[in-house]
Amino acid sequence: MTTLLYKAAGQVRGDDILPLNQLRVHYPDLYERHFAKYAARPHRVNAPVYPLDCTWADVVFLSPVHPAPIFEALQESGRIGPVVIDYWTIDAELLDPATTCILLKRHDPEQRPQPPEDFIPYSAEAAAALADPSERALHRLRNLNATEPLYPWADIPHILHRGPIPVAAFRTSAGTPVVRQRIG
User: Fold this and answer.
1) pLDDT by residue (tens digit) across 49-60?
2) Is residue 158 exposed (0-12), middle (13-18) or buried (19+ Cβ within 10 Å)?
3) Helix (H) or strand (E) segment spanning residue 32
4) N or C: where does the chain have the smaller number of CB atoms within 10 Å of the terminal CB?
5) Crossing angle between the packed helical segments 67-77 and 135-142, to the nearest 10 degrees
6) pTM of the model as a whole
7) Burial class of residue 15, CB neighbours in 10 A (0-12, 13-18, 19+)
8) Contact yes or no for 112/130 (Cβ under 8 A)
9) CB-CB contact of 56 with 49 (8 Å)
10) Strands (E), 21-81
């Protein structure tokens, strides 16, 4: 059975999904849009990704967890209304374990950066074992109060891939190839 990883759908230019640092060089407008997510915590982009010998801004983020249960829990909290979840998938077997790792997210808003022991080696089997969100993560999302930041993936494991990933490797939620935009 194929293990899928998930990525939020978005605007893509060129042939690859790029990490933040490469977006800055190639597509500054997209960089600004994605960097805005870190406005309240700009130091986060420089956090180390120990096993890959790089920083947070050098990796593409994927999730082993389907987004539906995460957004259903957020909806139960009353913080968001019904949403249409737009995501892409990639076969976990396509990622090279030499350039990919897993970050076990243990939500702690004060913890900066994630400790080295929270990073584990990547394999498609390890990703498959993390496909179900923890009850702790869902409980946190269901019980957010009106002043807490949403951070849907705060305690959901992350799959971190150093460097670009070809757009051709991704499929839409309907299973069709992702279409990229041409520049110029």
Assistant:
1) 999 999 999 999
2) buried
3) helix 28-35
4) C
5) 40
6) 0.92
7) exposed
8) no
9) yes
10) 48-49, 54-55, 59-62
The answer to whether the CB of 74 falls within 8 A of the CB of 146 is no
* Interatomic CA distance for residues 110 and 154, integer angstroms: 12
DSSP characters over 77-112: HTSS------EEEEEGGGS-GGGEEEE-----TT--
Closest CA relative to residue 180, chosen from 25, 2, 27, 20 = 27
pLDDT, the chain, mean: 91
The torsion angle over the Cα atoms of residues 83, 62, 168 and 57, rounded to 10 degrees, is 110
Residue 55: helix, strand or coil by DSSP?
strand
CA distance 61 to 163: 10
* Residue 105: partners with Cβ closer than 8 Å, 6 or more residues away: 114, 118, 153, 154, 155, 156, 157, 158
Residue type at position 60: V
